[in-house]
Design a protein that fits this description.
This protein is an alpha/beta fold. The protein is 44% helix and 12% strand. The protein contains 16 helices and 13 strands.
Amino acid sequence: MNQIQVENQVGKIVMPDNLKVGLMVAEQRKKCASGGCTEEFYGLGFGQSPFHVLPELSKALSESADKGHYSAAEGILELRKAISEFNKRHFGLDVDPSRIVIGPGTKDIINTLFGMIKGDVIIPSPSWIGYRPQIHLLNKHFHTFFLKPEHDYKIQSDEFEEFVSKLHDEQHILVLNNPHNPTGVVYTKEELENLANVCRKYNVLVLADEIYALDTYDISQFTSMGVVYPEGTFVTNGLSKDRSAGGYRLGSCILPTTSSKKLASDYKKVAATVYTNVSTPIQFAAIKAYEQNQEIEQYITITRDIHRIMGTYLSEQWDRIEGITATKPKGAFYFYADFNQLEPDLKRKNVLTSNQLGESLLSCPFHIAVVTGDACMLEPDNFGARIAFVDYNGKKTYDDYKNNKPKSLSDEIEFVKRNAPLMVRSTESLKKWIKFIKND
C-alpha cells in the first residue's frame, strides 16, 4: 500500500502551544534525567487557568448527565437567554438570544466564522497561536499587522487606516483579541471607538475574541467592541478562562446587529454539518455558570485579582533584568518579554531565531518553558516570548486569598512568594541564563 497522503495546508500549520511546549519539556526532562541533571523546571508556557471548577458548575453537570438527546445546532434557548442576561449585566450588551450561537469552545466558533465569512483576515502580531493555523487549513488569505512596543502593542487607528487603505476594496475581517494574548494589554473605549470608525469606513468586520474580558484587572476599564461597533462585530467568549472550565469546551458568539436571518441560518447549517450540537449536558450545566450567582461572582472577582497580583509581580521582576523589556499586563494571565536588546549576544551563542530563543531558555540547567517564535506569529528575527504566570496550585492559592486577602503591596509580594515559589525562582534562573548568554 502507498504511503498515506495529506493535504498540503496541513504542513503549513504549527503545533498548538500547549502540545508544543509540553513535548519540548518532556524531551528536555528526558535529556536531563539521562545526564543526571536535577534542576527544577519552570512552566511559563501553558496558558490555562490554574483554578478549580466551581462546585456549583460541576454539580450542575452531574445533574444534567442524563440529558443525552440531540439539541439545537445554535444552542439550547435556555442557555442563550442566560448568556444574553450575563452580557447585559457585565458588559452592557443588549442582545436578543436569537443573535447568540453556541459552539464547542471559542476556537471552534472562530474557525467556523473564518470558513463562513467572505474576505481576507487581518491578524495583529504578536498573536495567539490559534488564528493562523486555522486560516492555513481553510486556505484563506490573510494579512499580518505588526504591533509596535512604542504603542504598547495596540493597534493605532491611523496606522491601521493606512494599512487597510492599501488592501483591496472588498470586505475584510480584523481579529481583535482584547485583553490581548500574549501582551496582557487592554484597549480603552476611545481606542476602540477610533478603530471602529476606520472599520466602518473601509468595510472591515471585527472578530472580537474577548475570552479574557472578565479577567481585566480593573473591570470598569473594559469595553466590548460589541458596544462601540455592534453592526460589524462578532463577539466571542466562553467558560475556559474566567470560570476555569476549558475542558468543558463551551463558547458563545454574539452576531452583529446587522446580521440577516440568512446569516444566522447559515451558521446553524454549518454547525449542524460539522459538530451537530455542543454536548447537551454541558449546555444545561453551563446555564448555572451564566446565571446571577453570588458564589460565581465572588469566584470571578477573586481569581481576577490573583491574576493581577501574580502578573504584576512577575512582569516587574522580568522587566528589571538587564536586556529584557516586559509589558505590564492589565488583563488575562500573560505578559510579553522582548529580548531584542540581547540580539548580538544571542547570535554569538548561535541563537539565531525566536524559536531557538525558546529552546535556549528551556535548555539545561535553566529549564524556563515559554512560548516564542511561530507560536506568537513573530518574525524569525524578532526575539520575543509570551510568559504565562499560572504555574501554581490554583485551589490552594484561592483558599489562601479568601482567608488572608493581601491588603498592601508588601502583602501581595508575600502572597506570591508563599503561593508561587516556582515562578519566583524562575527569575533567578533567567538571570543565570542572561549571564550565560553574555559570557563569551
